[in-house]
Design goal:
Rossmann fold; disordered C terminus; single chain; 6 helices; five-stranded parallel sheet; alpha/beta
Length: 132
């Protein structure tokens, strides 16, 4: 299937998303912030990036902006729990900076997997969910 990078400073979120995507057949690499995540791009460009917005070192909006300029065809999903101003304050900005889709945490698994499938031009999520 696809190679996907996930950046999030919450280890529990990283593990949950990684397991969900691996069960769907994807190869997943993770990083705890945008700075560490950018190092992954030295090895290869993924098919999809999923990034949190509020992270230490290098936050998601900066990461999205930089990667969109370097890799205009990269598919990007932004996620956020919101921090002090709530996710609705950050997610529209992520879309303006180049995220293809944006989701508020906690994630709805079915909706999230459907978005991943759509961006990767894969079969609908119903087919994937039956494999679990």
């Amino acid at each position: 299937m696809a190679n996907i990078y996930v950046f999030d400073d919450e280890p529990s979120i990283l593990i949950m998303i990684k397991k969900m995507l691996e069960k769907a057949g994807h190869e997943v690499d993770i990083a705890l912030n945008g700075k560490d995540g950018m190092e992954l791009f030295k090895n290869r460009v993924p098919d999809l990036l999923i990034t949190d917005i509020i992270m230490p070192e290098k936050e998601g909006l900066e990461t999205i902006f930089e990667l969109r300029r370097k890799y205009p065809d990269l598919k990007i999903i932004a996620i956020s729990g919101g921090g002090r101003i709530g996710p609705n304050g950050y997610l529209p900005g992520a879309k303006l900076l180049g995220a293809d889709m944006a989701f508020q945490k906690p994630l709805d698994q079915k909706e999230f997997l459907q978005a991943v499938s759509l961006l990767l031009n894969e079969p609908p999520v119903k087919t994937i969910l039956r494999q679990f």
